[in-house]
Write a structure and sequence with these properties.
Length: 308
């Protein structure tokens, strides 16, 4: 059980990228910018604001340049871009992204579906990106998709994940994300692997990316926090999912996560009332209800009048 709540839990907001990437309804560029600008005022230190992938692959995010050039940047906020290759890195740097997030799967099958190449080719491409950004101020983070399980291959060997962590570090990539791409993780598995990875990666450089596909997202956050992890991806409203993974529903919900932290005394620095306001506006923006629970139920402190 968690006994020390003194260390801040850092939330990286990913709804503008991971949240919107599978939405069938086109979200106008001006609305994406407005959402990011509001999130920038909510207390986040990190926002994944968009991606620079092929418009054919992810048409919902084809306006990445316009989004990054149009946002109002707040001091102390790191604006992250997902990139698939060197061309994406060049596009992202041209729009002053603060950090580039690279992605490779632990699973060869998923990497072929997601990146159209084997893992070995992905690592070689990462090396080109490392060389390209050398001498700049941009930070690099590399994600390991399907860390906790693959919908095609099943269980992923933990040693395989650790080998990828070491390969990233040998390339000179400092930030590491362990991604539960299809929500296959369980708390005991998370605790065990996070403890092993933290022997190689500092808590400041490690991010956990959970999906709530099977309802264990917040349980896995607490398991990872207890194991020593301090940074987590989450999406407003619980939006998102991987377009190349069957059944991959949304990310853990930001406002639900922040509410959990508030209730048990873990500091996040996030403005929960503002998050609720933004989340309650998502159905009108997207044309459908969203998975988040808190926006529907309200906080515990939001009391109701007694029945007459």
């Amino acid at each position: 059980m968690i006994t020390d709540f003194s260390e801040t839990l850092i939330v990286q907001e990913v709804s503008p990228r991971d949240g919107l990437q599978i939405e069938p309804t086109w979200v106008e560029t001006v609305d994406k910018i407005a959402l990011i600008d509001q999130l920038s005022l909510a207390g986040f230190s990190r926002i994944e604001a968009g991606s620079f992938v092929s418009p054919k692959a992810i048409p919902a995010l084809r306006d990445g340049e316009r989004v990054f050039k149009g946002i109002t940047r707040q001091p102390g906020v790191i604006y992250v871009a997902l990139i698939p290759n060197l061309k994406g890195a060049q596009r992202a740097l041209a729009t002053r992204a603060d950090e580039l997030n690279l992605v490779m799967s632990a699973s060869q099958t998923h990497n072929l579906a997601n990146m159209r190449m084997r893992c070995e080719a992905s690592l070689a491409a990462f090396g080109e990106i490392v060389q390209y950004v050398r001498g700049t101020t941009v930070r690099l983070n590399a994600s390991i998709a399907t860390t906790f399980g693959c919908p095609f291959e099943g269980k992923i060997d933990e040693d395989r994940v650790l080998q990828i962590v070491e390969a990233y570090q040998e390339l000179g990539i400092q930030g590491i994300t362990l991604a539960d791409t299809t929500g296959m993780a369980n708390p005991r598995q998370v605790d065990r692997l996070v403890r092993r990875v933290l022997q190689r990666v500092s808590p400041a450089d490690l991010t956990l990316h959970f999906h709530n596909t099977r309802g264990l997202g917040l349980c896995n956050v607490l398991a990872a926090y207890e194991a020593g992890a301090r940074r987590f991806d989450a999406a407003l409203g619980g939006l998102g999912g991987c377009p190349f993974a069957p059944g991959a529903s949304g990310n853990i919900c930001t406002e639900d996560l922040v509410n959990l932290c508030d209730e048990i005394g873990i500091h996040t620095g996030i403005d929960l009332p503002l998050l609720l306001q933004l989340s309650r506006g998502l159905p009108a923006l997207l044309g459908h209800e969203v998975p988040g629970q808190l926006a529907k139920a309200g906080r515990n402190c939001d009391l109701h009048p007694s029945p007459s």
